[in-house]
Here is the input.
Amino acid sequence: MKKQPAPTPHPELTRREFITRVGGAAAVLAAAGGIGATLWRREHHVPGFEERPGLVLPSYAVERPTGAPTLAIAHGADTAKVVAAAIGELGGIEQFIRPGDVVLLKPNSGFDRPAISGATTHPEMLRAVAQLVLAAGAARVIVADNPINSPAGAFIKNGLRAVADELGLRIILPDPNAFVPIQVNGRTLRQWPFFERAFRRVDKVIGLAPCKDHNACEASMTMKNWYGLLGGRRDQFHQSIHEVIADFALMIKPTLVILDGMRVMVRNGPTGGRPSDLKPMNMVIAGTDMVAVDACGTARMLGRDLARIDYLALASERGLGNMDWKSGNWREAQT
Amino acid sequence: MGFWKNRRPPVRRRVPLAERVASVVVLMLLAGVALAIAVLGARGDAGRFTVDPALMAAATSSAPDLSMHLPQWLPAVAAAPTAPAPAEPPAADDPYADHETAAPADQLDLAAGGLAPIGPREHYDADTLYEKINGQAGTYMAQGFESLRCRSYGVPGGGPLLEVFLYDMGTPQGAQGMMALERDPAGEPLDFARGYRSGGAHFIVADRYYAQLLPTEDSEQARTAADLLARELAGRLPADDQAEAGPPLPTAGQLPNTIQYFPTDAHGLDFMKDVHEADYLRGKATLRFFMMKPADEAAARDAYDRYLEFCRQFGTVAAERKLAGARLFEADNFGFWKIVYQRGAEVGGVNDAEDRAAAVAMVEEYLGGQ
Here is the structure.
């Protein structure tokens, strides 16, 4: 049997060998680091998981003749006539709606409360505006809102569904797939789930808001109305409600907003419930500057000091509208 | 080159015993983990992943959609006989059904006048109240809100619908305070319960409950239906032993719709609990008068002393005296005057008045007249 040779004792490491080994290891590390640094991109380091910018809405405002009024107040007992008069003072619905337009009407349908409560946009207001828009040649009229509680039931109970069915308007109800993040980059509202489905292929957007007292933000009018387009746990915004409402003026540039003051909820808002909570005012304010419209509504419908409505000042300071509505070009009409 | 010539051979021929033992231990541990997964997986507890209805109720973001019931219900009611509809037992898997939390479930199984319920009972707690009443939730929360149950009813043969909202406000004071806060000054008092009607809407307070019955139209039929339903509901609410007189506040000169109730933290002070307040017109000044009635005189004394200490710390106590059996102090707190008294088991006074003389006069008048 052949005898295994005894293992050779390992010699001491020489200086040359040490330097060679350390140099080799350093070269490998440097090469690895160089390759890593070449591939590294701070803003895109995990492909597929990068932060994506949210939806940015286009402006739905229309070009109008220089010097055209931006706000109109109309008075009267007949909702349809008052709405027509207010929009007529602005230059007529044809200034805002072109034949073939797809128009989104955004009512306040936030509660499954009956129309007599005044908590939501009155069906007669929806009817009046929708008829004007259809008469101007709109190809399709969409009605959408995101009542958190029982969306379809809310549209039935507050009477908006009946008007939509009667006039052939399309109601779009929210579901989890109807929302995408919107990029607002406001002071409080930055990126948040937004009822995007209602805006697909839409050319014009009109807000229809009832004028109401609101225990959290003092007054709910055309700016607050856009709150209904948010998804998620939006109740958390009640902690900084004025800042969020001011951000809505940054989030969306509607074609037109209409503030319904036919019956104004002067107390116990935003839900009301008692006939005494409503005060007949027989007034409608329409305009292209929602800050101005809300400022006018605060003064003329609710009879409150503008200083109590923080969001008006917040939006006005940022150049998102003009709370000094009297300094603008405005008209008033009686039907 | 010496480096390549002297490097160690690539295969070790001798592995130390400690290393062999450690390797075996690691392999056995891995085998043990695999065995545990296999055994536990085979005997898995299916209940581990079942839905807890209570958690669902708290965590879900929206209540059941009434619309799914409405279209089916409307024709059904139109053809329904006038006999009362049988009460539905709450479904065991309905997270919004009553589960004997705050009140008996049958309180909302109303059937007066042949009214029939539409859809399920809805239930909301402090986390979900905003889903039902949105921005109004804050007011209810401040008054001690605990839960809301509601249900819709219809009149057979078609016609108006009726919404019943039954708020559990936690305490009789909370329920009473909430009704007072929203009260219609022109409302007509009810003769069968503590509350009022405003148009066809009825508002009732009983014990810790505040009920609202809201018809969808202002018609004679709706008023009659609401009245019948309100009477039935009032009979099902707990016995109401609260005084008819309402909050313990002076009535002379009280401005309508200004009563507020603070279950805790009135004036931002944690010891001010169960406090009622209202506005009063005195000359040109509007004064905010408050009153708290703790369980006994010792508690009232303690609250008064702590209020006095607060004013010393964060303002200037300009006067302390006794009047008509009461202790009283006048303090300037950030430019506003607090005139606070304690007499027996009662602490009250005027809070944050701009007109010191008017505030002092009102408190003296109240104490002198008692």
